[in-house]
Amino acid sequence: MKKNTVLWVVQGLLAAMFLLAGVPKLIMSPAQMAAPGPIQLPVLFIRFIGVCEILGAIGMILPGLTGIKPWLTPLGAAGLVVIMIGATVVNIVDGPAPFAIPTIILGLMAAFVAYGRGLQAARS
Description:
Low-confidence stretches: none
Helix content: over 70%
C-alpha cells in the first residue's frame, strides 16, 4: 500500500512537470523556441516532443484513475525516460552540464514509475 502511494505521488509530479514542459512547445512561436547554442532542433521535432510529453503526462494519471488499460502507465513512463535521456544529452552538449541535473532526476522518477507499475501490471 505504501509503495502504491509513493508511485501515485511521483506520477502526479511527473504529470505536472511534463504538462508544464509540453504545452509551451505546442503554443510558442518558432521565434520563441529558437535557442542559443550549437544545437538547433527543428520546430516540428520540438512540437513532436511536446505532444509526447503531454501524452506521457496523461498516461501517468488517466489509466490508473479509470482502470482502463493500466499497462499504459509503465509504457508512458518508459517513453518519458527516453525523452529525458535525449534532453540530458542536449543539456550536456548545449549548455552547462549542471542544467542536465533536472532532466536526470525526471528520468529517474519516470524509470521508477515504469518499473513499479510494470511489476504491478505483470502480477495482474
